[in-house]
């Protein structure tokens, strides 16, 4: 498992009530909640939302396939971000860091939390991405999150994730990159 010490600390802070007053939120319309939630965006936080159907699909797929890599455009090149699902959290780190320091000695550069406390009342899952350093700029983080969600939601794209996790010897990185250049903008 990636980053166990850090993950233990994060698990203590995955309650929506620690960020916002849940009882007050429940009284608002979905539209108002979304507006308030997205207003929390800043240079170190990216917030977005999804419905329960998408969340359940991601939850199911991430139980089967916890890990994946997403290339991120960097100047004229790209580098790979390794991601790992752990219940309601996704940890992201540089694949270069893992290769250099080992998986147990690598710190995340980003983590995203799924808050499902409003699913029964509003059919809303709130997603909050915390940017822990300046390794990626905000646009790169947004692209990373959007692409991660695409690969775990879309049936055809998820086949790459399955191959990476369930049959890694058959995973052809160059083929993966070439067939998905339009998604990665590289």
From TrEMBL:
Q: Which GO terms describe its cellular component?
A: mitochondrion
Q: Which Pfam families match?
A: ATP11
Q: Which chain regions cross the lipid bilayer?
A: none
Q: Which domain of life is it from?
A: Eukaryota
Q: Keywords for this entry?
A: Mitochondrion, Transit peptide
Signal peptide range: none
Q: Does the keyword Mitochondrion apply?
A: yes
Q: What is this protein called?
A: ATP11 protein, putative
